[in-house]
Amino acid sequence: MDNLLWIFVGALLVNNFVLTYFLGLCPFLGVSNSLETSARLGLATTFVMLVTAVCAWVLNTYVLIHAPYLRLICFIVVIASTVQFIEMLIKKLSPALFRAMGIFLPLITTNCAILGLAIFATNRGYGFWEGIVYALGAGIGFTLALVLLAGLREESELSNIPKLIKGTAMNLIIAGILSMAFMGFAGLFSSA
Amino acid sequence: MKKNESHEEFIKGLWRDNPVFVQVLGMCPMLAVTNSAINAIAMGMATFFVLVGSSFLVSTFRHLIPKQVRISCFIIIIATFVTIADYTLLALVPAVHKELGAFIPLIVANCLILGRQEAFASRYPTKLAVMDAMGMASGFLLALLSLGSIREILGDGALFGMNLFGEHFEPWVIMILPPGGFLTLGVILLFFNWFKLKKDEFLEDVAAAERGGN
Questions:
Q1: Which residue of B has its CA nearest to A23?
Q2: A135 belongs to a structural domain
Q3: Which of A42, B55, B165, B186 counts the most CB atoms within 10 A of its CB?
Q4: Which stretches of chain A sit within 8 Å of chain B by CB?
């Protein structure tokens, strides 16, 4: 139980996927201009991460022991088809939710945080429950980083910023400062 | 004529359409592995190999790949090359491979590579596609190398593992930690913005002077 808790906190804060591993930067910098869309994208990504963690575990346990060199190709195909499948499922079951998620659902396929999750979980030899908790922590951590940046950006829209720094340069510097703040969480592990 | 054209495709990736500084693509591997110059070069070479190889295949078979499933086809081609690169690095330079870790397989999700297949390789003849891929990949390598060198010099006081400043240098450790990646790239982009603003102002001045002259 303790172990699972540490995996969760580790993925959520100490090794935050966006701010420490630099995964999923494209959506992080691309769509973080409004709070609401970032929260929605974050939730959709968390969901896909959970499904991917289960699929990766099944593949690792039953298929890939016989052919480890096919790992990468298997993972990417599974992720792409899972996203496609979830998209169809949501469209059928809840058209309202489907409209709300819009273009973000298909774009999740190319989010490197998802593939990164599958690869990291495999490298660390996580089991079924560990994998699920890891995915949950990573997904919520991704959402957290996205929402934080979106809040700061919404605020900065209203202030008078020199033309020179506006745009990606400013977002990167904000992300750098956020990342420094998250470094403070590293102390959590050494005391444990 | 033909030679000039392919030459042009090569050059544009290096500066005018530089994938990192101008198009802001491929950020994830870019920031994650540039804490030292040697890692940056290994990553750049691996990306170079994958990008050129997959551009070659995609553009050679561009008439055979059905439109509806093209993205999946591209991804599988890219994943194959990445697997080759992964195992090659493991065999040749195990130390670097260990340091880069999970970021080698993550080249698959580098949006720069898929973007070039979709925007260029699937529409143009093989020769142009390969030139374009080589230009883009060199531009990426250049960007990785400059970021990696800056971060290693400031954060470690060294370049390619060689000590530069002697005993009394106090390393700016944050530069080789994750925040340093964001900050360095942010500052480099600032410089590019400044350059562009100056250029626009200059062109406006020239236009105004011409109007005044008439």
A1: B28
A2: yes
A3: B55
A4: 19-26, 29, 69, 71-73, 76-77, 80, 110-112, 115-116, 119-120, 123, 163-165, 167-173, 175-177, 179-180, 183
Q: Is residue A46 part of a domain?
A: yes
Q: Is residue A191 predicted with pLDDT exceeding 50?
A: no
Q: What angle do CA B150, B152, B154 make, to 5 degrees?
A: 65
Average pLDDT of the residues in A130-146: 91
CB-based contact A169 B193, cutoff 8 Å: yes
pLDDT in tens, A23-75: 888 777 777 777 887 887 888 888 888 888 998 888 888 887 877 888 888 88
pTM: 0.83
How close A32 comes to chain B (CA, Å)?
15
Looking at the predicted complex, does its ipTM rise above 0.85? no
Write out the residue range of the structural domain in which residue A146 sits. Answer: 30-157
Q: Count CB neighbours of B142 within 10 A.
A: 19
Joined tokens for residue B144: 């990785």
The burial of A185, by beta-carbon neighbours within 10 Å (0-12 exposed, 13-18 middle, 19 or more buried), is given as: middle
B31 interface with A at CB cutoff 8 Å: yes
> Nearest Cβ partner of A110 from B82, B109, B178?
B109
Q: Is position A113 within any domain? A: yes
pLDDT digit string (tens) for B163-214? Answer: 777 777 778 888 888 888 888 888 888 888 888 888 888 888 888 888 876 5
Provide the β-strand partners of residue B159: B162
Is residue A116 in a domain? yes
Check: CB of residue A104 under 8 Å from CB of residue A41: yes
For chains A and B, count residue pairs whose Cβ atoms are closer than 8 Å: 111
**Domain count for chain A:** 1
Whole-angstrom distance, CA of residue A105 vs CA of residue B196:
35
Cβ neighbours, 10 Å, residue B210? 9
